[in-house]
Design brief:
10 strands; alpha/beta; 3-stranded parallel beta sheet; 16 helices
């Protein structure tokens, strides 16, 4: 069964989730689509009937709530999904009554779709097991000051888990992206699926970026984070100028393009507001003087022409690195120095990591 589940996730098999919308929002899988049998309100009604009068009465109510035109409309939506995704699988929470009802209605309409044994609960349990098994691997953590390019290196290496990518966040106070972060369960599921696609069982070493446990509003599962805290480090060391340019590209130019695509004509205003809100969150650590000076430069950068704007962005980025991020990281790094195995520029660390992976595979 577990090998079957692994193939579903590795191949991005389309999954038809017929749970209610609130269940889906709480946690789902990367290739799943929610076309619920019952709305949230209907599910509440059926659940209340089940507690009061038992299963048969609840089933009768469910069939009454979804009948006639509403049933026909649902069957058409399911049929359309399956026609566009002929390899799809069907599930509800436990692979029980809801998914069997949907499968039966579709069969009566001449449409076949296999069920996922055990439903969402079994798939979720399998992915949690993947995270636990991955924590048994040897880890290598890519460390370095803010802006040194840790994430860029992680996404280039073949044995790496992109935690920030799964979290939809760049991991710092200024790391928010246009799309909202996933739920905690979706974050964990995305990491587990990424591990499956890496064929994690056969990896000589698993590489991850040095993170605090919180990535935006999400938390790295303890089973992985505890392992990362003990792992050897490869430390990227880049000049302040290089790090400023990396942050300018990733946090300003790339985010501006993303916000503009998200909301045409309003990208700059949204980015400015996002930066100022992020600055407010670290106001106490900056002190009033640092906060006011940085905020003034930020605001001014959005009122001038491009070249002057870039220069102003570089100034406030430098201020934050020198007065906030670097002192904080140096304090944290002092406790991690015994774990450092290699240090150098990003290109040097990339070469060393590949050699490390090869030697680990041979060993």
């Amino acid at each position: 069964m577990q090998s079957d589940f692994a193939l579903l996730f590795k191949r991005d098999c389309p999954l038809l989730d017929v749970r209610s919308p609130v269940e889906f929002a709480r946690g789902a899988f990367p290739a799943s689509t929610n076309i619920p049998l019952l709305t949230d309100a209907q599910r509440t009604e059926v659940g209340t009937m089940y507690r009061r009068s038992g299963g048969e009465a609840a089933t009768r109510l469910g069939h009454k709530l979804v009948s006639g035109d509403s049933r026909s409309a649902l069957i058409e939506r399911w049929r359309n999904f399956i026609e566009h995704n002929p390899e799809a699988r069907l599930y509800c929470f436990r692979g029980g009554q809801r998914s069997h009802v949907v499968q039966q209605w579709l069969q009566e309409a001449g449409v076949e779709i296999p069920l996922v044994p055990g439903g969402y609960k079994a798939l979720r349990g399998f992915l949690l097991h993947v995270l636990e098994e991955a924590a048994r691997l040897d880890f290598l953590v890519i460390a370095g000051k803010t802006g040194c390019g840790k994430t860029h290196l992680v996404t280039e290496l073949p044995c790496a888990l992109d935690i920030e990518g799964a979290a939809g966040h760049r991991g710092s106070a200024f790391g928010a992206l246009p799309d909202p972060q996933p739920s905690q369960i979706d974050f964990e599921n995305a990491m587990a699926v990424a591990l499956l696609k890496l064929e994690f069982e056969s990896l000589p070493v698993l590489i991850a970026e040095d993170e605090s446990r919180a990535v935006g509003s999400l938390a790295i599962p303890h089973v992985l984070f505890d392992r990362m805290k003990q792992a050897p480090l490869a430390l990227i060391e880049e000049s302040l100028e290089v790090r400023v340019e990396t942050i300018l590209h990733d946090y300003i130019l790339a985010n501006l393009a993303a916000w503009e695509e998200y909301s045409p004509g309003r990208g700059a205003a949204i980015l400015e507001q996002s930066l100022l809100e992020s600055l407010e969150r670290i106001r106490r650590r900056l002190g009033d003087g640092g906060f006011r000076k940085t905020g003034a430069l930020m605001r001014q950068a959005f009122t001038v022409e491009r070249q002057e704007s870039l220069a102003l962005h570089r100034r406030w980025i430098s201020l934050l690195l020198e007065n906030y991020y670097d002192p904080m990281y140096e304090y944290q790094l002092a406790r991690k120095l015994p774990r450092v195995r290699c240090r150098g520029r990003r290109e040097e660390i990339a070469r060393w990591c590949r050699t490390y992976m090869s030697s680990s595979a041979t060993a």
